[in-house]
Amino acid sequence: MQSVSWQSIHSPWLFDLLVAMRDPEFHNADIEACRTALKANRLEVPRVDYGAGSTGNIQTISAIARRSLKRPKHARALAALTKHLQATAVLEMGTSLGITTAYIAAHCEQVCTLEGNPTVAAAAQRTWRELNINNIAILEGPFDETLKPALNASDGFDLIFIDGNHRGKALRSYIDQCRDFLSPSGAIVCDDIHWSSDMESAWKEICNQPEWTLCVDFFEWGLLTRNPNLKREMKAIRF
User: Fold this and answer.
1) How far, CA to CA in Å, does 54 sit from each of 21, 43, 164, 208, 220?
2) What is the DSSP string of 84-137?
3) Residue 127 lies in a domain
4) Which are the contacts of 55, defined by CB distance < 8 A and separation ≥ 6?
5) Domain count, the chain
6) What are the residues facing 214 on neighbouring strands?
7) Whole-model pTM?
8) Does the residue 229 lie in any domain?
9) Quick count: other Cβ atoms within 10 Å of Cβ 109?
10) Which domain holds residue 126?
11) How does pLDDT run along the chain (239 residues), one tens digit per residue?
12) Can you give the CATH number for the domain in which 225 is found?
């Protein structure tokens, strides 16, 4: 699919979102200071790989921060999306060090986030305490053990952010499990949709499902919504 400039978008819903994604109001200096501190943190962390494709037994907080955290502009974009959706409840699959979680939490009432590595989860919680963020609940363990309880304990979610297992089969499964818990005008964000040909294939297959009224490829991540007020479109946008 050929990409287009965000300025050429005709859908008011999507155009307003793209404008918001560029709004400097979503920059958070306190969160970025925590990002900088994490990049300098040499604490060693035992590796727990549930599907991210990692190798080796030991890593550092610094390495995780440099490799795995969403870049600032993408964290800001997800914060803008959260506000655009007027989200009350958000589910995040893949906490990492909690920087993106913090951006999202600033614009909704409650975030439930899932993280497989307990040492990484503890580091994320320290960051949230430093930022005085109190509306995040974290569940530790593999997604196969935490996703279903998180969904069943909820009243549904307005935004679901899937970032953790970079396998096409897993992505399809998560979408299947989450779809009944997504609010009618809510959105699902799938991270790293071009991680591999397997992930690209899964993304294309999901986009072709007729229930999604809008599918947007932002290259690093993709957005799905079945908002009934939107016409069916598939877009690739340079962001």
Assistant:
1) 30, 18, 11, 30, 18
2) HTT-SEEEEE--TTSHHHHHHHTTSSEEEEEES-HHHHHHHHHHHHHTT---EE
3) yes
4) none
5) 1
6) 225, 233
7) 0.93
8) yes
9) 11
10) 4-27+70-238
11) 566 775 667 789 999 999 999 999 999 999 999 999 999 999 999 877 665 544 457 899 999 999 999 999 999 999 999 999 999 999 999 999 999 999 999 999 999 999 999 999 999 999 999 999 999 999 999 999 999 999 999 999 999 999 988 899 999 999 999 999 999 999 999 999 999 999 999 999 999 999 999 999 999 999 999 999 999 999 888 77
12) 3.40.50.150
Token pair in block for residue 73? 């502009």
List the structure tokens of 141.
């363990």
Instruction: Evaluate whether residue 39 is within a structural domain.
Output: no
Q: Are 166 and 196 in contact (CB under 8 A)?
A: yes
136 is a domain residue: yes
**The two three-digit tokens of residue 7, written as one number:** 């300025």
> Residues, the chain, total?
239
